[in-house]
Specification:
The protein is 78% helix and 0% strand.
C-alpha cells in the first residue's frame, strides 16, 4: 500500500505521507476483518466507520465530520459485499443492486464533501 500511495503522490502530489496513508488503509481493512469475523461485540461498526473516516479525512484533507457520512455508506456497502460473498457470489443476487446503490451513495457523499 505504501508503494501504491507513493505512485499516487508522484502523479497527483498527494498524499503528503504515503506511509501514513498506507497505515490508515491497512487499519480499516484490519478493523473490517475483525468486524466481519468476530463472534463478540468487542469490535463495532462505529469503529469501522471511524477507521474509514480517518482514511478519507487524511486522503482528501477534509474534516472528519464532512467525510463520515461517506465512510458510513462505504461500511454499509462492505456489509452487503460480505453477505454476497457469504451467499456464494451469485450473479443474480438481489444484494448486487443494493450494493451498487450503497456504493453510488457513498461516493456521491464523498464527492460532495470534497467539493464543498
Amino acid at each position: 500500500m505504501r508503494r501504491f500511495y507513493a505512485l499516487v503522490r508522484l502523479s497527483y502530489g498527494e498524499p503528503a505521507s504515503p506511509v501514513e496513508a498506507a497505515r490508515l488503509e491497512i487499519d480499516w481493512w484490519r478493523v473490517h476483518r475483525e468486524v466481519q469475523y468476530s463472534t463478540s461485540p468487542a469490535i463495532t461498526d462505529d469503529e469501522l466507520i471511524e477507521a474509514v473516516t480517518r482514511l478519507y479525512s487524511y486522503l482528501y484533507d477534509e474534516p472528519a465530520t464532512d467525510v463520515r457520512p461517506a465512510a458510513a455508506g462505504r461500511v454499509r456497502a462492505m456489509h452487503l459485499s460480505d453477505q454476497w460473498v457469504k451467499e456464494g457470489c451469485q450473479p443474480d443476487s438481489p444484494l448486487l443492486p443494493q450494493l451498487r446503490v450503497a456504493l453510488v451513495r457513498c461516493y456521491a457523499s464523498l464527492l460532495a464533501a470534497v467539493h464543498r
